[in-house]
Amino acid sequence: VISCGQVVAELSSCLDDRVAADLRREIEAHLAKCAACTAVYDSTRRTLTIVTESRTIELPEVISGRIVAGIMSRVRKRAAASPR
Ligand SMILES: [Zn+2]
User: Fold this and answer.
1) How far is the CA of 59 from the centre of ligand 1 (A)?
2) Secondary structure (DSSP) of 26-48
3) Could you report how far apart the first and last alpha carbons of the chain are, in Å?
4) What spacing in Å lies between the alpha carbon of 60 and ligand 1's midpoint?
5) How many CB atoms lie within 10 A of CB 65?
6) What is the tens place of the pLDDT at every residue in 48-59?
7) By C-alpha distance, which of 6, 3, 5 is closest to 73?
8) 37 C-alpha to center of ligand 1: Å?
């Protein structure tokens, strides 16, 4: 079982299809149970698609990581503001 931190750390690799099949399965299983990570995954995928479509260049991993970190901090703040 992998943690939210690990999922977020692997998200950009996962979206670029650069993760091993078994790790990808673990991430998908986690996403199915975790709303916060699903939100990050969807936002990241959308963000990366927009950037990719407008530039049609490969994203440097540093930028992807920064986008993920920004989204994740926003999700964390929202999750803290409205606990279930
Ligand atoms: Zn999670």
Assistant:
1) 24
2) HHHHHHHH-HHHHHHHHHHHHHH
3) 23
4) 24
5) 16
6) 766 656 655 555
7) 5
8) 4
Looking at this protein, which amino acid is placed at residue 68?
V
Residue 16 identity: D
Q: Which amino acid is at 31?
A: L
List, for residues 21-48, the tens digit of each pLDDT value.
Answer: 999 999 999 999 999 999 988 888 877 7
Determine the distance separating the centroid of ligand 1 and the alpha carbon of 79, expressed in angstroms: 12
Helices and strands (H, E) in the chain, number of each type: 4, 0
In total, the chain counts a number of residues equal to 84
Ligand 1: centre distance to CA 54 (Å): 29
Overall pTM surpassing 0.85 (yes/no): no
